[in-house]
Amino acid sequence: MKVAIVGTGYVGLVTGACLAEIGHEVLCIDNNEEKIKILKSGKMPIYEPGLDELVEKNVKAKRLKFSTDIKEGVKAAELLFVAVSTPPLPDGSADLCYVEAVSKEIAENMTDYRIVVSKSTVPVETGMWIKRTIEKYAPKGVEYDVASNPEFLREGKAISDFLNPDRIVIGVESDRARKKMLELYSPLKDRTHILVTNIESAELIKHASNSFLALKISYINAVANVCEKTKADIKEVALGMGFDKRIGKDFLEAGAGFGGSCFPKDLSAFIKIAERLGYDFKLLKEVQDINRKQADLIVQKVKDNFMTLNGKTIAVLGLAFKPDTDDMRNAPSIDIIKKLIQEGARIRAYDPVATENAKHAIGQEGSVLYHSDMYSAVKGAEAILILTDWGEFKEMDFDRLKKELGAKLTIIDGRNMFEPAQMKELGINYIGIGR
Ligand code: NAD
Ligand code: UGA
Questions:
Q1: Does 287 reside within a domain?
Q2: At a CB cut-off of 8 Å and minimum separation 6, what does 47 contact?
Q3: In the listed set 197, 215, 248, which residue is the last one of a domain according to the structure?
Q4: 387-406 pLDDT, tens digit each
Q5: Residue 153 Cα: closest atom of ligand 2
Q6: Residue 227 catalytic?
Q7: In the listed set 197, 214, 242, which residue is the last one of a domain according to the structure?
Q8: What is the pLDDT of residues 325-381, one digit of tens each?
Q9: How many domains does the chain have?
Q10: What is the rounded CA–CA span in Å between residue 43 and residue 10?
Q11: Do residues 352 and 410 both lie within one domain?
């Protein structure tokens, strides 16, 4: 099938490459000329494991192309995906200006039946607004459908998540659109559940799912706080809870809290749309609050090691909001590092891939020194703070660290990567979360 995707960011590019991989002809469109230039030159504008090979393969096979022109996409493809960002407005609600602009431009260029599919994460009833926008700007008599097809991929695992999803959700209101969407995903139908709903349910499934996952994380962080007051160990508690299939073992890792481009913004957007519809979603406000307080908790754990933090050097290992990505959007490291600096600490930071983005996100020139490997970052520091559970940290050479550090090796592990008993045996002052 011929598909055009407007918005070639994390989601648009992964969707484009994966749809090409399962046999479709895809045009990825973006109004960021620089991004399209990079892609046309065979390079990647983002870091996502395996994406460069997949893009290269499908470009070579002529199933994947890039453009800055929406008109070209509307002309070529019957299925038009909208995968632009939906960032938060100052009050927390989703800014739909990009979705609106793209819907308008698609509508203005339509001459024949088209299906406009929202892949962006949007508040419930956005589909209705996309429809109204198209109605307003499309030439008279041109037929169209609107659909919702929320995306559930995770950064760092985006390709396997897209190609082997737990479910595909399709929100439609016509049989014609339903058939086309099912045809699009038919190569994946034997590996997953395909759920067809109305547009509103599909939109809500996305916000409700992300918020539930965020709730699970805040819940386990709250339980970890209780564990710290007793001899209970959150790792054992989470394991014991997770064996219950109704609870499930995933997303029960206590730590520095959730960040990223989605959970924080989607939680706020869900709270706001609920408020607009007349429901006060207090439960989710508490989820946000617990997450905010995790940053304070980590800072306190660092502070507890010193008479005063003023003038102390802390090595921060891991800056990205999670491993296997260079994404710094809402990374817990930003808030935590800023708070440590406010207390007078100096930071030596290391991340395997997110350093360049971190420089922009954290700023604080002078107070943060960035290093290209973990051992140079810890040189002369008085404590190590782990904020992202990058695989390479698992392999750290503790003897070497002991030599590099300017004091007894202290590790504040914001991601519970190590076992306290083992650390004790190695003579390391180890502080985890809820352990
Ligand atoms: P992104 O910022 O990486 O990409 C969005 C792209 O849209 C940018 O390249 C931007 O230049 C482009 N764009 C904006 N306006 C445009 C216009 N008028 N014409 C053409 N291109 C335009 O965002 P993202 O992370 O890919 O997220 C996109 C949507 O998908 C959001 O709603 C997000 O919540 C949702 N989502 C993201 C993820 C994720 O892991 N990043 C996962 C699931 C869902
Ligand atoms: C999340 C969802 O997992 C995806 O299904 C969804 O498509 C995406 O948001 C989105 O809508 O954009 P992502 O943000 O890439 O994906 O990352 P996650 O793996 O979900 O992690 C989010 C944050 O939660 C990270 O900061 C991570 O460190 C934290 N986390 C995760 C925990 O603190 N504990 C856990 O047990 C799991």
A1: yes
A2: 325, 326, 353
A3: 197
A4: 999 999 999 999 999 888 87
A5: 7
A6: no
A7: 197
A8: 888 999 999 999 999 999 999 999 999 999 999 999 998 778 899 999 999 999 999
A9: 2
A10: 14
A11: yes
